[in-house]
Write a structure and sequence with these properties.
This protein is α/β, with parallel strands linked by helices. The protein has a single domain, classed as Glycosidases (TIM Barrel, Alpha-Beta Barrel), CATH 3.20.20. Helix content is 37%, strand content 12%. The protein is built from 17 helices and eleven strands. The strands form two sheets. An eight-stranded parallel β-barrel has the order 1-2-3-7-8-9-10-11, surrounded by six helices. The protein has a three-stranded antiparallel beta sheet with strand order 4-6-5, with no helix packed on it. The longest helix is centred in the middle third of the chain and has 23 residues. The N terminus is likely disordered.
Length: 442
């Protein structure tokens, strides 16, 4: 019966979104469908429908949405744990060595005059804390479910705060595994216990965003960390529906048959992502008031050739190919901050950094959502095929350009490994040119 109730609720939400897409009802239809109960399917709450106490609007009350004068700039770096990209340096290290490496990264952030770290703590439906929902991450011990003998997230929060750094907990909502075989998961992994929740696509195993029970579960799993630890923010990246894989299709036919509600498949998929975002936005302040919610999406919402409101770019779009209506998340007030990954150089013929920064600045203007820019430090390489990325000063030019737009409240650098090694001196140039002294976090 619960399955039937969820289906009915989602059908109502689908109808509301269909009206919005058609331009006949707008936010009013979504409000008429009513906000979802905690963990249940339903229409994403419209701005006026949700009490301000339930989401980012009140947390931002009195700020000048996008004004640098509202507080210190954000200076962040991502610490990626999936595949041991940044930390731990390899699986199976002792607890003492893992802790030592983590503290060294935090110390480097301070030395580079940063004020925030974005730590990946749920890279693939696993956990860097003792979660009752999902197993310990394999990137800690080498064996999924293996107890590392310490609490990485709890330690990270305590030690970051002791250094004057914010700790943003970075979660990946729907990536179930970095391989497509559920038999390789630990015996009690939710994706193994519920194979009907998953879709194998490309070389990955994904949770199916079209299933209400999946959305409810992943929200509960992430919010467990928020309840346990005083994290400064919940952070998601660009992975919702997977990036397209040539010659393959994402098989969500059965979920679409059950829950499509008469929408086209693209609109239905975007609704599923909107529900995830809006429900997390509503639930965070219920669990830990004051914790912020930010997303770092793919840098292009839509191209102007597709939508007049889009950016003067070409190529892949978050809206049409990842089913992520990133602009809507900002305008609806669901986010405290947005940190688009603008991983292109100034002058790119398809996706010019100099065109995307003003587009995002205009998008957040007047919304109360802070804009931070995701920077591709990892592309600064003496062997890069792109001349701009071989220049030590390319990233510094980015910050100089972004400073022309008061809506840009800071930058975040991918990733920690390059912040430490700084192979061509690009990070040192940024610090010398733009970070003359330390600034406290918000």
């Amino acid at each position: 019966m619960a399955h039937i109730r969820r289906r009915g609720l989602l059908a109502g939400a689908a109808g509301a979104l269909a009206a919005t897409v058609a331009g006949t009802a707008g936010a009013g239809a979504a409000r008429a469908a009513g906000p979802p109960a905690s963990g249940a399917a339903g229409a994403p709450p419209g701005g006026a429908a949700r009490s301000e106490a339930e989401g980012p609007a009140e947390r931002r009350a009195g700020t000048a949405g996008g004004s640098r004068g509202a507080g210190p700039e954000f200076r962040g770096m991502w610490i990626a744990s999936v595949l041991n990209v940044d930390w731990p340096s390899r699986p199976g290290l002792s607890a003492a060595r893992q802790r030592s490496e983590l503290l060294a990264l935090l110390d480097t952030a301070v030395e580079r005059r940063l004020n925030a770290v974005v730590l990946q703590v749920r890279p693939a439906a696993d956990a860097f804390w003792p979660s009752p929902f999902e197993p310990w991450s394999q990137w800690l011990t080498g064996t999924q479910g293996g107890d590392p003998g310490w609490d990485p997230l709890g330690t990270a929060v305590t030690e970051a705060h002791a250094r004057g750094l914010e700790l943003h907990a970075w979660f990946n909502p729907y990536r179930a595994a970095t391989h497509p075989d559920p038999r390789r998961l630990s015996p009690r992994h939710p994706a193994r216990l519920h194979p009907e929740w998953t879709v194998a696509y490309g070389d990955r195993l994904h949770y199916n965003p079209g299933l209400p029970e999946v959305r409810s579960f992943v929200l509960d799993a992430m919010l467990d960390a928020v309840a346990r630890y005083p994290v400064d923010a919940v952070h998601w990246d660009d992975y919702f529906y997977p990036y397209p894989v040539s010659g393959q299709r994402f098989d969500d036919d059965e979920a679409y048959r059950l829950y499509g509600g008469g929408l086209g498949r693209g609109d239905w998929r975007r609704l599923n992502t909107d529900l995830l975002v809006s429900e997390m936005s509503a639930r965070i302040p219920q669990v830990r008031p004051g914790t912020r919610f930010g997303i770092s999406p793919f840098g292009v919402w839509r191209n102007r050739s597709t939508d007049p409101a889009g950016s003067d770019t070409s190529g892949l779009e978050a809206y049409g190919e990842l089913y992520a209506d990133t602009r809507r998340w900002v305008t609806e007030g669901w986010l405290d901050y947005v940190c688009p990954q603008l991983y292109w150089h100034i002058g790119s013929s398809t996706t010019d950094y100099a065109k995307l920064v003003p587009w995002w600045a205009g998008t957040v203007a007047g919304t109360g959502t802070d804009l931070y820019v995701g920077e591709a430090l990892y592309r600064c390489d003496a062997d890069s095929p792109t001349a701009a990325w071989r220049r030590t000063g390319e990233l510094s030019r980015h910050l100089t350009l972004a400073a022309r737009y008061p809506e840009v409240r800071g930058h975040c650098f991918f990733s920690a490994k390059q912040v430490v090694s700084d192979p061509i001196g690009a990070m040192s140039r940024v610090v010398a040119d733009h970070y003359p002294s330390a600034v406290p976090p918000r």
